[in-house]
Amino acid sequence: MSTLVETPRTGAEINYLNADYGWKSWLFTTDHKRIAMLYLISITGFFFVGGFFAFLMRMELLTPRGDLVQADTYNKFFTMHGIMMIFFFLIPSIPATLGNFLVPIMIGARDLAFPKINLLSWYIYITGGLFALGAVVAGGVDTGWTFYTPFSTTYSNTYVMAAALGVFISGFSSILTGLNFVVTIHKMRAPGMTWHRMPLFIWSHYATSIIQILGTPVVAITILLVAAERIFHVGVFDPAVGGDPILFQHLFWFYSHPAVYIMILPGMGVISELVTCFSRKRIFGYTVVAYSSIAIAVIGFLVWGHHMFTTGQSMYAGLVFSALSFLVAVPSAIKVFNWTATMYRGSVSFDAPMLYVFGFIGLFTIGGLTGLFLAASAVDVHLQDTYFVVAHFHYVMVGGMVMAYLGGIHFWWPKMTGRMYPEAWAKFAALVVFVGFNLTFFPQFMAGYLGMPRRYHAYAEEFQVYNVLSSAGASILGAGYLIPMVYLVWSLWFGKRAPANPWGAVGLEWMIPSPPPTLNFDKTPVVTWEAYQYHEPDRPEVEVGR
Amino acid sequence: MAANTEVVEHGPELRHHFEQPDQQYQAATLGMWTFLLTEIMFFGGLFAAYAIYRAAYPDAFASTSQYMDVIVGGVNTAVLICSSLTMALAVRSGQLGQRNAVILFTIATMILGAVFLGVKAYEYHHKWVEHLVPGFNWHYEDSRYAHHAQILFFLYFVMTGMHAIHMIVGEGLLLSLVIMAWRKKFTSLWSTPIEIVGLYWHFVDIVWIFLFPLLYLIGKHKL
């Protein structure tokens, strides 16, 4: 934290970074921008913990036999990778960092509606994270991140309770963030900032918040029931006394499927901001892109059964879930087409954030289309629990979400820190990430289609070539993530000072100094223009509030 | 969406990031309503589990219903409805700036809540004596339903237990209201915390309004 405190002043300006010094000014802050920074540092930590387990898995999978570890240990590797990455990196990633920083500024507010609750959410997140890390240190968990019953309740002898408690606790941090965003977006918009003038980043965060609010409590009660079953053996998920383990899966996926939209929707918001700025064009079809976020949030709640085609759920339920899963792909496709149309005849430039946009659009499309393979219930019977599913999920989450996250971090880095990152290195890293990613995960589609099951430490020898390619790609991908880590930290001291608007972008956040003052705006802005006025030659260049 | 030009008279309660007291008030109430939405989903998971097991094991359900005392449950329902009345009166007194009435009605609400919890504790004790506590003290008379009844009684304890925990949290919130009123924090212009706690209290009551018929009334059988 001290690294950020020591960031030199931009001129003589007082900003949120130098307004106050010392660890107390960070740990007791209620400034949404500082809380965003606390989140940024902590989720980066969890990202590298989760990445470490991925590294160990790819090492083991280099050969078809269990050389490095045996099955029990390998089970813990993929479980801890999943728990860390999903609950402690992907879910909070964009909302808690970029969202926390930008949501109030983009709508012309001085802070989120409940600043203390915002800080509380970070402490809850850290507490949950400590429980999950405690489970790792104590000896690990082997249930998979899904905690399926009755294995998790009856048979597993690992630290299920500590990990589940960590997930349970961190869920409340997610709920509080969503609650804060919803109230802020409803009640804190500046005069003139109507719903249809809001940046699409705000729309996607609004949709995300709806899912966080409606979904997370269900997984909370589900985890409580698992805990009761595991500790007291009351039988609620135990088939031996008439309990139904499939009920657990229904309750779990009722949250955990919409949760993948918690992870991807904010990324889509980032892409909408970036693609307009670097194409110098208004977004193609603003209204449709905005409401497609809401459509994803709503339909996303009705598709959870596609995780359960092979569990023996009713065939008719399977048909409906399959059809709805096809339907939920439509709004995502609308977004992809509209981003592409935005670039059409735009003045496209190739700065590092835009490279991540290109990566996102291509990889997300592959991830989304392979999702349709899996949504077809007959095809899914063949592909269920194979590496095809793993590859699909990682194309959406790593190829999509993490690309958007990195693009967003680069794009708003000057605003957040007041420093420019080194552009050449950033472009190089974006390329390394893209190459490494595809080399890691594309072979998994093939291995999976040929029948390689997921979650095994050993495999048939004919799959080795795909696994060697995948492990090689993973090491490139790992390097691709470490490079930005190094030069972004470097830029805090040695980066060029950032002007208020280095990209020539529109949006309220670019009309205030970099980094912003503590209260964002001295005077509340009055918004008289639509979002993405890149086509207007006389778009507002005025600095608001200074 | 406050107009930023007019200067509004306001008390010390207005936080720096709000433009107007009304905006802050609306944000607070919307925040509570949103929170209650999460609570609905939280209890919703339990109601779903209840519905599924009740549909799956109707005979066991009929068998367990003989252990539910409608009189005791009904009295408790009446107590809770009365507490909603006193809570509503406390909110009204707050809006009118009647400090003594706020304190009186809030304490009345607390007492009624405590009566409810006491009766609930009596019922739990009774269940314990009858060996109807799954996982701790379980022995079911009718061996045909011993397994299934265990799940149903577990759901009974989780649902009423979660409700009771919310009641206890509510008692703490009410206590803080009494202290705030005692210290003359509320004025006729600002009594938002009373309304917020009121929303919470009414919600917890409504949960019970659903629990009572589901657990005590529907499918009542005397064996």
At a glance:
The complex is a heterodimer of chains A (546) and B (223). With 546 residues, chain A is an all-alpha fold.
Outline the biggest β-sheet of chain A. Answer: none
Number of helices of chain B: 6
Count the E strands of chain A.
0
Biggest β-sheet: strands ordered side by side in the sheet of chain B: 1-2
Helix content of chain B: over 70%
Major sheet of chain B: size, sense and barrel closure?
2 strands, antiparallel
How would the global form of chain B be characterised?
elongated
Q: Which oligomeric state applies? A: heterodimer
- Helix tally of chain A? 17
- List low-pLDDT spans of chain B: 1-6
How does this structure look, described?
- The complex is a heterodimer of chains A (546) and B (223).
- Chain A is built from 17 helices and no strands.
- With 546 residues, chain A is an all-alpha fold.
- In chain A, helix 3 (32-60) runs antiparallel to helix 17, helix 6 (115-138) runs antiparallel to helix 8 and helix 13 (352-375) packs parallel to helix 16.
- Residues 1-11 of chain A have low confidence and may be disordered.
- With 223 residues, chain B is mostly helical.
- Helices cover 74% and strands 2% of the residues of chain B.
- Chain B has six helices and two strands; from the N terminus they run H-H-H-H-E-E-H-H.
- Chain B has a two-stranded antiparallel sheet.
- In chain B, helix 1 (21-56) runs antiparallel to helix 5 and helix 3 runs antiparallel to helix 6 (192-217).
- The longest helix of chain B has 37 residues, at 146-182.
- Classes of the chains: A mainly alpha (546), B mainly alpha (223).
- Chains A and B meet through helix 8, helix 9 and helix 10 of A and helix 1 and helix 5 of B.
